[in-house]
């Protein structure tokens, strides 16, 4: 089974707080704060679970290619209850880590949730 690791828990709690916006890829979106952008960059680099899956590796590119749908998801009152753009099917196929990976994307982009 692909289980959550201590590094996964730490990343979930800290997000991109260790990254410096001055040295990272610039935030291309006005509707996302730099803090959220750094969270996105951090989860795109994180290897999840015992199997070390780079599940969100393409997340920054997904958001750039499909900005309208991501913004709609981001602006929703309850993003945790609607399909995540571009990755919903992969989340559902990831039997063990899927629910945690959904928490990660919601928490990384919507810290109020």
What is the helix fraction of residues, given as a range?
40-55%
H/E series: HHHHHH
**Straight-line N-to-C gap:** 28 Å
Radius of gyration: 13 Å
Question: What do you see in this structure?
Answer:
The radius of gyration is 13 Å and the shape is globular. Helices cover 49% and strands 0% of the residues. The model has no long low-confidence stretch (mean pLDDT 95). It has helices at residues 6-14, 34-45, 59-65, 67-75, 88-93, 98-109. The chain is an all-alpha fold and 113 residues long. The chain has 6 helices and no strands.
Compile the SSE list and pairings.
Layout: H1 6-14, H2 34-45, H3 59-65, H4 67-75, H5 88-93, H6 98-109
Helix pairs in contact: 2-6, 3-4
Record keyword descriptors for this entry:
6 helices; globular; mainly alpha
